[in-house]
Amino acid sequence: MGKRYLMKGNEAIGEAAIIAGCRAYFCYPITPQTEVAEYLAKRMPEVGGVFLQGESELAVSYMLFGAAAGGSKVFTTSSSPGISLMQEGLSYIAAAELPVVVVNVMRNGPGLGGILPAQSDYFQAVKGGGHGDYRSIVLAPATVQEAVDLVILAFRLAEKYRNPAMLVADGMIGQMMEPVEIPDGGETPSPEIAGHEAWATVGAKGRRQNLIKTLFLDPTLAYNLNVKLQAKYRRVEQEEVRFEPIDADGPLDVLLVSFGTMSRICRTAAQQLGRAGLRVGILRPISLYPFPAAAVREAASRAKLVVSVELSMGQMLEDVDRAVQGRAPVRFYGTAGGKVPTPDEVAGGIRALVDETRREHPAHGKES
Amino acid sequence: MATPVFTRPASLTTAITHYCPGCTHGVIHRLVAESLDELGVRERTVGIAPVGCAVLAYNYFTVDFQEAAHGRAPAMATGLKRTRPGLIVFTYQGDGDLASIGTNEILHAANRGEKITVIFVNNAIYGMTGGQLAPTTMPGQVTTTTPRGRDTGLTGHPLRVAELLATLRTPGYVVRTAVHTAAMIVDAKRCIKRAFALQKDNVCFSFVEVLSTCPTNWGLTPVESTQWLEKNMMPYFRLGELKFTEE
Predict the structure, then answer these.
(1) Is domain B25-243 given the CATH code 3.40.50.970 in the classification?
(2) Cβ <8 Å between B87 and A70
């Protein structure tokens, strides 16, 4: 058992990285996640780690590259516009197969947008983000406790697959205080990446050159790298799917698919709808990539309606639709601009979609 | 048996370089390699290759290497050196890479005083992409994107990076040299070795700008190129130490 603390999400994210053994953090200030930097500016020196505020998010993404290529666990945190600037570096990091952890405390966009909670970086996070055929492993916490647990998991997965792993939270999770149990890890994990001696650039003492590069002018070599990456992503899709079903057993009037902050609002909305006689289940993806497609499909086959509920204008909707494969009608409920709906609004929106579907699909929609 | 008087530095591989005839990258590579050998740091050195003609530099050195994105080598060097302070870390960058797309990264790495060495090869043109305008291109110089010559009214005057960095308080060693004559090669060697020695002693950020020729994209013979460099580049890009810290 670990110790329990009342912690702000952003600070808990910083402490979780320390628990995971990370001793190198590079950052650039941006709301709503700057508390991570402020926390680690004090904490990293206490544990003998590296804290450095870079000149831009672009530069930070290459500081991550340089440190990871040297075999060190490393991470950064930022928010949507800053994460956009890091996409160049993340493409190189994915191509070089370097383990790096990135936390995106999402804010509303596009453009400078605003600083309020949003989930509108879903496409950017799960479909690649930068140039080229690559994927990041993407995890989405719904509580401060889960943010801690998933940061620690992200370091494990990044190291296991030698791939960028990204946590997508939002200002709600970053800013709120919740009780957290900080795991008592026993032995502190190593700040170095396991097995790095085989490939990291730490000086060619008594061996041939280690080289971390992403340029392959020979099309066969460039193709081979892509094939290797795709094989890795297939393995990630087999082994790393994570989700939480909430009251999603048996026949359902409506299945909500929702992650992070929005899934918490859905819980309350589902209880309201349940009291009004609807059987509402929730499937909460924890890994956004790999997406829990099989679980969504199975639950959808027992549902009269599936609704993707998001703090965006409908991005995960495309993955939900693809997973359901026509087993039930798929609709969307969501909002943007940092407007976080109340449980009443979500319940009302879902109710309206249920009624609409009953009119359009009488076979699906008859009262059970 | 005769004693060899001239041998290949252990820091260089036996690979034949891809550089054009008359290009001075090969000479500068050798000077870096000799310096690493003589300082005894080869086995704890990591190079960061740029995007540009020297993108394949890692093929010619026996030390560990990382390959950067265009302009980002100083940021990568920062990440590596901060987490592995026992390493000798150097970037090797051209003028398109360092003086155009990478100005932010070089300026801030220098200003933070990263304990790294930067070898900046300035040939006043983009080489690998085939001879376009660089920030360092001379006024009136014809490139593929300034077919009537660089018009300073449209694109400004050549950027003097060494002078720019010398205005900063933190960087300890900023120098400009050249390799177009035997005498200048000796000078360049002294500067490069000194830059690495300062890093070895953990003293300061060190920056060596080396004026270089690009016969292929200048459209001149190698001999004409050295004359063009002396006549056009050297009066504007003055050689010498711009900043110097005593150990």
Answers:
(1) yes
(2) yes
